[in-house]
Amino acid sequence: WDHFQRLILNAKLMTRDRWGRLKVNEKRVAALLALTAVHDIMKMEMLLPELQGEHGPFHGYNAGDTIGDHDVALAYVMEFFPSLLPSFQGLDKEEQAS
């Protein structure tokens, strides 16, 4: 339990108040849940984005390339088209960046 608690605290999912009680960081948990919901969506080949000319190069991909790496594809959509991921777009900018 001690290791798990340390992991949760290090991830800032919970904090301790001045009396040492654990408190849930609701914004951080919402960010984790949003990422969990979308993290593998780009493994569906039909959803892989094509890099738009004004965004290239991007992580080794050039304009017109289909971004085949699902993690890079998700990063691209999050950066340039966040409205396609409403659960991500609804997060604060600070949480989006985390």
List the helices and strands and how they pair.
Blueprint: H1 2-10, E1 14-16, E2 22-24, H2 26-38, H3 70-80, H4 86-89, H5 93-97
Antiparallel strand pairs: 1-2
Describe the structure concisely:
The chain has 98 residues and is mainly α.
The portion of residues forming beta strands comes to 5-15%
Count, helices: 5
Counting helices, strands and paired strands, the structural category is: mainly alpha
**What is the overall pLDDT average?**
91
Largest sheet: 2 strands, antiparallel
Q: Sketch the topology as an H/E string, one letter per element.
A: HEEHHHH
Q: Give the N-to-C terminal Cα separation.
A: 25 Å
How many individual β-strands?
Answer: 2
Binned, the helix content reads 40-55%
Low-pLDDT sequence parts? none
Order of adjacent strands in the largest pleated sheet: 1-2
| CA-based gyration radius | 17 Å
Shape: elongated
Describe the structure.
43% of the residues lie in helices and 6% in strands. The protein has five helices and two strands; from the N terminus they run αββαααα. Strands 1-2 form a two-stranded antiparallel sheet. The longest helix has 13 residues, at 26-38. The radius of gyration is 17 Å and the shape is elongated.
